[in-house]
Amino acid sequence: MNKEKFMQVLLNKAKESNFKDSEVYLNQSENFEIRLYKGKVDYYEENEEYGIAFRGKDKKMGYSYTEKLDEDIIDVLLNNAKNNAQIMEEDEEEIVGQNDNYEKLKKLTGIYDYNREEKIELLKEIEKNIYKLDEKIKNINYCIYADEKTGERIINSKGLQLNYENDIGYIYISVVAEDKGEVHTAAHYQLFRELNEVNAVDFAKKVVNDAVKKFNSEPVKSGSYKILLKNEVVIDLLSTFSSTFSAENVQKGLSLFKDKLNQNVANSIVNIIDDPFYEKGYRRTPFDSEGAASKYKEVIKDGKLMTYLHNYKTAKKSDVETTGNAYRGSHKSRISISPTNMYIKRGNLSFKELVEKVENGLIIDEVQGLHSGANPVSGDFSLSARGFLIEDKEIKKSVEQITISGNFIQLLKDIMLIGNDFKMGLPGSGHFGSASVVVESLDVSGL
What we know:
Blueprint: H1 3-16, E1 20-37, E2 40-58, E3 60-66, H2 73-87, H3 116-133, E4 137-156, E5 161-179, E6 182-192, H4 200-212, E7 223-229, H5 231-241, H6 247-251, E8 272-274, E9 297-301, E10 304-305, H7 312-318, E11 326-327, E12 336-337, E13 342-344, H8 351-358, E14 361-368, H9 370-373, E15 380-391, E16 394-407, H10 408-414, E17 415-418, E18 423-424, E19 432-434, E20 437-445
Parallel strand pairs: 7-14, 13-19
Antiparallel strand pairs: 1-2, 1-4, 2-3, 4-5, 5-6, 7-20, 8-9, 8-13, 9-10, 11-12, 14-15, 15-16, 16-20, 17-20, 18-19
Helix pairs in contact: 3-4
């Protein structure tokens, strides 16, 4: 039985079994990945995955899921959902989506319009350029090309029938540089929808330069420093603290933005957007995982917190409309809340101009320990870091073995400048983006 027929039969049988407000959800993906080592493909993977989930109300909402499309599994799914509903302790009502006004996604040239040979040749060209650029590059420990096509389909008892597909590719390369016994690594990545967005020479120069400029690193004295946070570090921080925008966490008292709606929570130059239609976004979608229409949102506008992110359940509890941010990590997951493509709106200053504006301070281009050193509830963080010292408007030396600490809300308030070097993160954090920013001060522990 094909997926579409299976879903419809399941929905029909749910109605016969007296489920109220039932829904059938499909998520699927096609994945392609290659890895090179010295010009030869040493890893190749291509697979397709899918799963179907059912949820329906039997006094309370029950869930079940399957990866099989056999008709005899349908009764098992319905029975599992009923049993699941009986043991649920939550009595808050979950709502199944109704028809809404959906914005059509603009048709884009997709990464799947290119053949495998073109993708492999691009990766080979980057690898070849890396080894040519600097003799200190001794090895490339990760040389990866990957792309994926994802999609969701939702049908429900209220007549909803929705479907979308989205694809994106990325290249990730990590190099090892060595000189006189000193060893450093550096990595660079780029997301794209078309191969011609990637310049092999520029990509190679970026990762090589990032590696070789780390030599002769040393810590700095402890103190409070003006900080230039590189775009990838800002992306990591935004991703880590994104759960604080969730209305569910607000309602549970687990958000540092609780009771701060319509208040200034950041510098007036800060605008944080949640954009499900962003053309280069990893989560580009016209509807959320409940079937509600996706919406462009200014979550923080000119420093003011304008909205939380809602699904149907939290919106009903707060007596507002859903923002279209219901999310399922997979068909095995329950409905939660997540941003679509969330980013800090870019500024107009180049990275060089940001360095000059700092005059004296630090660049932080790498942080570690986000899982253990950052608390999304309090907003506090303490992270091992490395970067560069800025003196008299110039980058002077590489810095390592330091720790930066602060608070996320205070950091948003202390952002003084925003650059124009905007990028989105890798899949995993690929739906978060930012340019580099200058922060008035952060505490640094070093010597």
